[in-house]
Structures
1.
Amino acid sequence: YERRTSALLISGLMVKAVRGSGVTVNFSLSDGADVNVAIKRIDGGVVRVITRSANAGLNSVVWDGRDGQGKPLPAGVYLVEVVARSSDGSYVKGITMFNLR
């Protein structure tokens, strides 16, 4: 789903999980923003957060499949939540599920 409080938009949120290559989270932003990409268990518990600045257009974030302590996560269904916040404080959130094998 998508939640929006401004003209900032997330589109094309997709997750590509390739065994041995990690997980790539792809998304497009309508404008530059600071982004938090949270990997969550299906129950909503956060296992890792990746924070960075992102430009307008297509963006990719690679996750190594490990939790915040560097331990590999077991196979299963996980959530990716992308929250983008612009310099004026407005934000947008997108979330999707993926299968880590």
Note: The chain has a mean pLDDT of 91.
2.
Amino acid sequence: MKAILNKKNLKTFFYILIIDIILIGCWILYFHPEGSEAIFLLFILPTVFLINLVIASILYFIKRYYTPFFIANAFLTSSILYLFWMLYIDIYGRIIWEDWELYIDGIEYSISYPSLKNGTSEYNILYSPEKGMSNGVEGGMVVMQNDTLYFTSTDGAKYFIYKNYLYGFKNNEKIKVKKRY
């Protein structure tokens, strides 16, 4: 046990780990993965795992000292890649999307739209009658003026959010809303 956890081995493993984190981080930032591309993880994770095992098998014949590091690295790199991928999707989604939630008669509604950098955007309203299930209600255009968000649905209905209250939605005068992100 002492031979495994000596200073030289830990230093070597730490350097390999730092290189992995830098490479994976750069790769994620370069490709900008989206939530809709999560299916690629089914192909990318085993590929990264196998690449590390191939490197370990090559190093077995060249320099055996590094072989156990790359075998352990095969598991660690796949985990880091998955973590970075999911964190990027979550953080990027919070940056580019605005999301409000409200409750009417115990049903959760969610109003989502891309950030309003150019002043106008499209929005969607989903409702969730049960946990994990959501249905689209409507969509339309959203405009930010001063500190008020104005929504105009495709059927012509109009309502707005002002100071964390939604006015005019579903024949309700005033509904408390909470900004998720």
Note: Strands lie at 97-104, 107-114, 120-128, 135-145, 148-153, 158-162, 165-167, 175-176, 178-179.
3.
Amino acid sequence: MLVPLLWSRPNPTRQGASSLATGGVLGGAENDYEGAEQALGRAIAIARREGDLPLEAQALADAAGVSGRHLHWQDSVDHGLRAIELAIGDESPFSALAPRFSIVSSLLRMGELDAARPQALVLRDMVERRSTPRSFAFSFFYIASLSLLEGDWKAVREYSDRGLEVSPLSGPLLLPRVMLEYETGESAQGEVYLERLLEATRPFEYLAAARMPMTIAAIARITGVPDRLEMAEAAASAYFTEQASSNNLAMWAKVGTALLAVQKGDQSAAAEHYAYLQGQRGTMITTVISVDRLLGLLSQTMGNLDQAMAHFEDALAFCGKAGYRPELAWSCCDYADAMLDPTESSRQTTWESRQKAISLLDESLTISSELGMRPLLERITERQERIQAQPSTAPAYPDGLTQREVEVLRLVAAGKTDREIGKELSISVSTASTHVRNILNKTNVANRTEAATFAAHQGLT
């Protein structure tokens, strides 16, 4: 968002730096990232030479926004943090809010949930004291998005409700609410918010064309109902006809068309999208999907299962470290599907891959049950029933323990804490603790020491 620079008295040097900063923001908006960076860099250099901290803070805030729009997440964080440091005591709402918008957005993309949380809470406190409806909506969008990523549905509802009271057609606030309703199986309510989202973006055709394909394709992936896919495809096509393809909006549209390629099983389109998305590995696309999981789905569509499983492993590691539990649950389920993929007649499902799939589904079931992700629960149940119907020559584990629970039990016997178990298995601490509780209940032991003794007696260590 371009904000005019206002100064207390005319100064040729300040005016020159101000013009450079303004040009940098405009260049970023026009997809000239390199030119924008150069202009903003010169503005920052002039401000530092003149010792003009307000000018430097605003130029850095502009640079943070431009970097974020062009997918340079760490640069956005670095610029934003420096802008905040320089703007301490500045009463300008822009100086206080804008850098934090960029920081929170970029940190969430990078999977740095714990680092994003305090900045998001500061945003909340600031806008509650004094803010415009637009800033209020944006601030609550970031908190709702953070809550959605960690699976705190109650907080998503609270913050989106509060924000939508002030700004009922806020596109940013409506997106996490749409995803929440569909993730929890409230499709009818999700439809209501989706219609509002489409209404909110309709006046801004380029924004609607970028956001619509991603949102609709993600909903189809969650529900298994291929609704509005032709509309999404047409919107994406229109976007890439009219817009450049190097910024954040383009990434949204690309993610939508990539998911559409997966939905249709289009190998050539999947290969094209795979090449485009490679540079964003280890990041999250808003609140919709991790790039690593999407690369896994695209690889599977292309028929490269080994490559798909490597990407799913990366998705598990990314989501486990970030604490993105809903996305971790989906990654586990999609990974299990790849392990059991029957499309290659030359590839046989080994007992090891079958057990791996069972373990992944068990992990996904643990999370989705706790969070009430009904569409995913139904998908997992169908997979588990299919596996159980297949013959297996492998011996069952004692007391009904699953493959994943045996893995956890072995680490418990080795003296690992829940946090260490989570790190070892790329799962959250909460999930590890749930597995430990289930193990104690199933084996009828009182504590971890007794569980270790049980494991030794059963030959599981």
Note: Residues 25 and 62 are 6 Å apart (CA to CA).
